[in-house]
Amino acid sequence: MGKMAVIFKVYPKEGQIDNVVKSIKEKMDPKGIQVEDIAFGLKLIKVMFVFEDAENNTSSIETKLRDINGVSEVDVADETLI
Q: Is pLDDT of 32 > 80?
């Protein structure tokens, strides 16, 4: 099996962006985190993970992201084999 790269869009609750970014870095092993402005002061966190295709699956990572305190919504933005 090959490696997968998955980018998630994480929507934090109001005023929780710094706490959510810190928690993701501490509890998980992301390859990259980027904060983007989306509109009217709202921000979105894009988080990238790279893993062996057979090792993890997208839904387990998504569940872990949803369980982080301060996260409102999580969507898969992009996934690809690398």
A: yes
